[in-house]
Amino acid sequence: MSSLGGRALGGIAAAAVAVGAAQLVGAGFGPRADVRTAVGSSVIELTPGPVKEWAIGTFGMSDKLVLSVLVLVVVAAIAALAGIAESPRRPLGSVMVVAAGVLGGAAVLSRNGATVVDLVPTVVGAVCGVAVLRFLVSKRFTGPQQKPGVEEPDRARRRSLVTLALLTVGVASGVAGAVITRLMSSVAGDRQAFALPKPDVTAAPIPAAVQPKGVALPSFVTSNADFYRIDTALAVPQLSRTDWKLRIHGMVDREVTYSYPDLDRFEVVEKPVTLTCVSNPVGGDLISNAVWTGYRVRDLLAGAGVHPDADMVLSMSVDGWTAGTPVQALTGGDALLAIGMNGEPLPIEHGYPARLVVPGLYGYVSATKWVVDLELTRFDRAEAYWTRLGWSARGPIKTESRIDVPRAGQDVPVGPVTFGGVAWAQNRGVRAVEVQMDDGEWQQATLGAGYSGDTWRLWSFNWVARDTGFHKITVRATDNTGYTQTAERADPVPDGATGWHSITFAVR
Ligand SMILES: Nc1nc2c(c(=O)[nH]1)N[C@H]1C(S)=C(S)[C@@H](COP(=O)(O)O)O[C@H]1N2
Ligand SMILES: [Mo]
């Protein structure tokens, strides 16, 4: 019997070999058989809504990294326990590995489109894990029984080396398997080869005046690289144009399924739209603006003939995420089945090869990425992903504004200075932005040129810093209906945050 630490390490090595073998074998089976991603996705699925919201609010776009590290730590801890629990006569640790394999297998099977064949890598991994655990407690490894507490130094060293070697092999095959899986399933090449069709209806040119001068604000059009990203997909779905199909069914006259080439018969429309996440806290950065290229959803729906009593379109992604959108938001305005973003094919993480972009609605009720299914239904019959978790079924974007300059805690030199930020009220449009310095009067900010009601508006404000010390700037927007954003603080749950954004800074 080796030391407690040695046995714990042995358990971790066994887990590494198990996961490594599963990843390596999994490379031959494709992403659906990936037990690591399946477990992570199930954890996301099973996490209560408020905890998810907290995680997005706390970790923002690093939420998935934090989750991965957390799962790794938990797996390592359980593996260490399994290593300690394993003994030659009572294979308790092996039972734990088999149990973990069963849970992993259940996670794999629970994913959209998985079959029994996808279990093979998990089974192979579990078998390898048990084999390593059994080996580590075998006579061959531990050597003949010794007096308790007496340990031959050479043998102990050899054992640590073997354990570390197993750990290394496990981790290396895991990394290799993950990399091979990613390379083999990636649609990066498919995307590269895609020439975005020329728009039939081009967007009005964006005037230079949308961008206020003299202050470093976010660009009116967010670059694809800077565009915020939020989704529940632990591994970005890889769906080629050839494999993509959009099925429209439910309360329609005739079910239709469009393939990518079928889209050619529809008009290609280009349109700037600002997307916003319902989880965006006051002052948060889960909002970005892009010029989208795509097809009008209403044109696609017309082919199916929507029943008049359908009031919701339940859209679904290839990985089973859903959003519930009011039918009239899709038939009324220029809601798009977007295939392009800022003149390029959609980036894979933003929904390649096709996603929905619906002006005026938060992403969670409208902006389905990797979209493959539209079901015409009713709000009193169907519930989408976030609504099931306690979010509101309807998610119109609220009138809000944000200060980008100054940043919290920033030092401002005495003298003239220009502040600024963004304001939004899709699809009403922003009419005015006001700024309050300390507890003074509300003053009009200077607005960048407005583009459309569906896009955000940048603003700036000239100020002269006179008194050194701390100061506060507060902002509020008024939309084109005349509504001024409320000071009342509301959490992102259940239908979007409200309240005025303010920043405290120092004049020096
Ligand atoms: N398939 C899928 N689509 C999705 C989501 C998701 O989790 N899965 N999240 C939605 C949410 S909550 C938002 S705010 C937007 C964000 O789109 P972006 O990542 O392109 O900025 O995507 C929406 N579309
Ligand atoms: Mo969101």
Automatic annotation (TrEMBL):
Gene Ontology terms describing biological process: sulfur compound metabolic process
Keyword Transmembrane helix tagged: yes
Membrane-traversing stretches: 65-85, 92-110, 116-137, 161-184
Domain Oxidoreductase molybdopterin-binding: 234-385
Keyword list, A-Z: Membrane, Transmembrane, Transmembrane helix
UniProt superkingdom: Bacteria
Keyword Membrane among record annotations: yes
Annotated InterPro entries: Ig_E-set, OxRdtase_Mopterin-bd_dom, OxRdtase_Mopterin-bd_sf
GO molecular function, one term: heme binding
Matching Pfam families: Oxidored_molyb
PANTHER family membership: SULFITE OXIDASE, MITOCHONDRIAL (PTHR19372:SF7), SULFITE REDUCTASE (PTHR19372)
Protein name, per record: Sulfite oxidase-like oxidoreductase
Organism name: Mycolicibacterium chubuense (strain NBB4) (Mycobacterium chubuense)
